[in-house]
Amino acid sequence: MKNKGLIKPKYPGIYIDKTLDEKYAGKVLFKEKLDEANRVLKTYGVPKSAQVPSEKK
């Protein structure tokens, strides 16, 4: 028996319901995690690897 590699499915295994975008647009679902992330950003700042390079004039 020869292994011909992985068989790719015709359809992805995960489907995202597009109506959820409308339902949850503008709502904060995880307030505690957002507060913690904002606290960390205020304390330590944005990591250099995540910063967008500014345009040089």
Can you tell me about this structure?
By secondary structure, the protein is mostly helical. The chain contains two helices and no strands. It has helices at residues 19-24, 31-44. The protein is extended, with a radius of gyration of 21 Å. It starts with 18 loop residues before the first helix and ends in a 13-residue tail after the last helix. The model has no long low-confidence stretch (mean pLDDT 82).
Short key terms for the protein model shown above:
57 residues; 35% helix; extended; mainly alpha; 2 helices
In short:
This protein has two helices and no strands.
Q: Helical residue percent?
A: 25-40%
Instruction: Return residue spans where pLDDT drops below 50 for at least 5 consecutive residues.
Output: none
Order of helices and strands: HH
Largest sheet: none
Which structural class do you get from the secondary structure elements?
Answer: mainly alpha
